Amino acid sequence: MAAVKLTKNELKKQKDQLKRYTRYLPTLLLKKQQLQMVIRSVTQKANELRLKKDNHYKEISLWVDVFGENVLLRKDEKIENLIAVEEIKRHQGNIAGVNIPVYDGLKFRDIPYNLIKTPLWTDAAIEALKSLSELDAEVDILERQIELLDHELRVTSQRVNLFEKVKIPETNEHIRKIRIYLGDQQTAAVVRGKIAKSKMDKVS
Questions:
Q1: Distance (Å, rounded) from C-alpha 52 to C-alpha 58?
Q2: What's the whole-number mean pLDDT along residues 30-52?
């Protein structure tokens, strides 16, 4: 514990600090609770999207054998060359003072292809792969949200622990010590005053 001056000024300073700590602590606790709730919610949403993606893969696997034709197509007709992400659309949100990216969708490049020369399954395959790309992009952004919120939760938890376990108990102990010392000084002053008065009475 840091050394503290045993004075009335220091007592006032310590009392003011204690007021600040006890006023700020509930705000930190509320922020910690809010962050925990949001992290649970975002994690649940990310897990739901992962499950949706897995189900999508299962659906595609039922007719994916037709992709075998893909290797026979010209390069500009192959399915992987008919899809290209032009932009991941997002905006910045704010949760409990944390700036986070929010997913708004994917913008795909418009790639024309010959409807006569490409297989019948091309349209369905393009839509399926676009849907998977969108799910991947959204999950990536949700994971980034969790990463940022987790970091803020760790910082907030450290501050809560600092206030609850260090600063508030330390300040209370400083106040107790100063009060004891000042009380002893006051008692000693009274005793000295009585002794001095007694001596003066004897002299007179």
A1: 10
A2: 96
Distance CA 135, CA 84 (A): 15
Report the range of poorest mean pLDDT among 53-57, 59-63, 71-75, 132-136: 71-75
**Given this model, what pLDDT does residue 67 score?**
56
Find tokens 């795909």 and name the residue. 108
pLDDT, one tens digit per residue, over 106-123 is: 999 888 877 777 667 778
What fold characterizes domain 10-173?
A: Helix Hairpins (1.10.287)
C-alpha separations of 83 from 27, 104, 115, 125, 138 in Å: 48, 19, 15, 10, 18
Q: Give yes or no for a contact between 156 and 28, defined as CB atoms under 8 angstroms apart.
A: yes
> CA-to-CA distance for 200 and 204, rounded, in angstroms?
6
Report domain extents, the chain.
10-173
CB 106 within 8 A of CB 133: yes
